[in-house]
Design goal:
With 148 residues, the chain is of the alpha+beta class. The protein has helices at 10-13, 25-50, 85-91, and strands at residues 75-77, 93-95, 104-111, 130-132, 140-146. The chain has a 5-stranded antiparallel beta sheet with strand order 2-1-3-5-4. A hairpin with a 7-residue loop joins strand 4 and strand 5.
Length: 148
């Protein structure tokens, strides 16, 4: 029993506030760092896959170097100063159009034995080089135009 002039005990007069929760800053920073690492890794893998693994150091995708694998719109690299048509044709290599050595665009691929020639191809200008297939024994030719 308490008397009217008596005060209640101190713990009843001033209730103690519950303890504050400590922020989990370390956990938040750790999760953010892990997310950055995972995202960076995913980007690196995507770039490696897109560029063919990046092991060769090449910045352009690989294409079949056979010039006769090219279709209209593809690009080739050939020695402009080869001299003869045989040397020019022998120097021709299919490359990606973003390659700095791509100096000719393919207009058409024709079967030489059919009697048609590049002069009959729309867009081809008389006097531009023709790549002949001397290696495979097939009668094929590529009508090409210099890239400008």
């Amino acid at each position: 029993m308490t008397y009217p002039q008596q005060q209640p005990p101190i713990w009843q007069q001033y209730p103690v506030a519950p303890p504050k929760k400590t922020p989990k800053t370390g956990l938040i920073v750790g999760i953010a760092a892990a997310a950055v690492v995972v995202t960076g890794g995913a980007i690196a893998v995507t770039v490696a896959i897109t560029t063919g693994g990046g092991s060769s150091g090449a910045s352009v995708p690989q294409v079949d170097p056979d010039p006769f694998s090219a279709q209209a719109g593809d690009c080739i690299s050939a020695d402009e100063d080869a001299g003869s048509n045989g040397a020019f044709s022998a120097s021709a290599v299919r490359v990606h159009c973003s390659d700095s050595s791509a100096n000719y665009s393919v207009i058409a691929q024709l079967a030489s034995g059919s009697g048609s020639d590049c002069n009959s191809v729309p867009g081809y200008e008389y006097g531009n080089p023709v790549v002949y297939d001397f290696k495979s024994g097939e009668s094929r030719e590529l009508c090409v135009m210099p890239r400008g």
